[in-house]
């Protein structure tokens, strides 16, 4: 789905979204309130320019419109793999974008993301995965790393990874697998405007992804390990505070 058709379905009461060089920005009306809309289109590779523009848009909302909700529209092939971007420090730009999203959440801005086409690698991690809640359309493509690239990095044969992907969502792409792992909250179909309005009402800054992954059977160890680390840290804090 192209972003223009998507915006018409998400925001039937009007929007001011504009596109420039695959960067989306504007406002829209949702459930009787104004929201900021930030995103990308055209399977955009997220280079230093778009990362900085997205960060600036988030900061402008925080500065000028306290607690205004933010909607992130995700369509990206991941971070741009060019020597120029690497030399300019694309990792720092991506980290800056993630920090701006975290700042907005800490200041009371509800952030909801929707993957409407592609969501790959670092371009997804610092946008959709930094939101309070992330959703996807049924036809969306979501993956952090393709199986061929994973085989090269891990040295596990591609055939073995392909076999594992049939039964383990950690190795498999697609919204259904990410839903099972807790990476997204739901797959939207039908009335997108209604579902967006409900998502903004329900959005919470508390991260429930590992707990959801355990409950849905997609990630069996993330939540128990995180809880064990937290319990260990609390134990040491209590011992320190009560030391003579």
UniProtKB/TrEMBL annotation:
UniProt xrefs under InterPro entries: ClpP/crotonase-like_dom_sf, Malonate_gamma
UniProt feature coiled coil, ranges: none
Pfam families linked: MdcE
UniProt-listed Gene3D superfamilies: 2-enoyl-CoA Hydratase, Chain A, domain 1 (3.90.226.10)
Domain of life: Bacteria
Name of protein: Malonate decarboxylase, gamma subunit
């Amino acid at each position: 789905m192209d972003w223009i058709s998507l915006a018409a379905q998400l925001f039937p009461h009007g929007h001011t979204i504009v596109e420039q060089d695959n960067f989306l920005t504007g406002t829209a009306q949702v459930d009787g309130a104004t929201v900021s809309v930030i995103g990308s289109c055209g399977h955009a590779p997220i280079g230093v320019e778009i990362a900085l523009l997205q960060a600036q848009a988030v900061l402008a909302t925080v500065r000028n419109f306290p607690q205004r909700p933010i909607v992130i529209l995700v369509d990206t092939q991941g971070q741009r793999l060019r020597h120029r971007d690497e030399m300019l420090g694309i990792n720092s730009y991506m980290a800056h974008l993630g920090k701006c999203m975290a700042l907005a959440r800490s200041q009371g801005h509800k952030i909801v993301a929707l993957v409407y086409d592609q969501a790959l690698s670092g371009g997804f991690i610092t946008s959709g995965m930094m939101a309070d809640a992330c959703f996807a359309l049924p036809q969306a493509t979501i993956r952090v790393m393709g199986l061929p690239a994973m085989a090269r990095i891990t040295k596990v044969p591609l055939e073995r990874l392909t076999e594992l992907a049939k039964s383990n969502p950690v190795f498999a792409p697609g919204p259904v697998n990410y839903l099972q792992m807790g990476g997204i909250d739901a797959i939207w179909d039908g009335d997108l405007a209604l579902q967006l309005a409900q998502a903004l009402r329900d959005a919470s800054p508390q991260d429930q992804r590992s707990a959801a992954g355990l409950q849905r059977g997609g990630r069996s160890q993330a939540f128990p390990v995180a809880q064990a680390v937290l319990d260990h840290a609390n134990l040491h804090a209590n011992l320190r505070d009560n030391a003579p």
